[in-house]
Amino acid sequence: MDLTEVNSQLLKRQYKDASRLYREASEIFSKQIDKTNNKEINNALKILAEDHLKRSRSIQLSSGSQNVGLSGSTAIQSTNNKLSASLAMARGIPTSSLDNIMGSLEETDGNNSTQILTGNGTGDPIQKLSVQLFNLFKAPKLNTIPEQSEIQVKPTGKSIEELEYENVHLKQLVSNYAENLQIYETTNKKITRNLQVYLSSFKKEMSIKESRKISELERKIDTLQKENKDLTLQKEKLKQRWDELVESAKKRREDQTGTNQ
Q: Which UniProt keywords apply (predicted)?
């Protein structure tokens, strides 16, 4: 999918066209399902097809609002979270750890709403895999097959010239089919090989992103624990000071009462 075109349509507020592009992407992914015996690849294709269809519908639902950028980004972000979790499960990444990664995506501000809608953010393994697969499944360029009328054999009464003419066209037809078959076989091998590479890269990138997020959260936890400790000490000091003031006030009242008596 051409993300530049999607992004351009969103910036122009051409939400109908952007939605159409996502829907077309979903259809392309759907057509590739079950064309391989690799369950992992088929699961990834199903998830990507569902994700792009949800993106298309979310943009349609959001197009009537003035705040389409923000509301659409929220819907798409929710879809991305589910997509990430599903793909992570397919690759063996614990979903409990993946939740930490998704938390960082939710912190994106309104200025990046278009980026979220297109999924064109830097370092996004999900969208990277989506684009790689979309481009991978583009139809190969094949040789043009002659029209049936051009190669149809006449029943009887052929001259030598007619037979030679038909023979040339039939040979060309067989050659074209053979070349196209070879193209399909080569393309299939390329797709299978690249899919394994893309999925392996996806798993590695998700793992790196997960590790970075975990480190970030651990640093945040340490900072919060330190702040909580300082606040606890301040609370104890203030409580002690308050108790002293209460006791002092009580003593003054008792002294005043004794003096008056």
A: Coiled coil
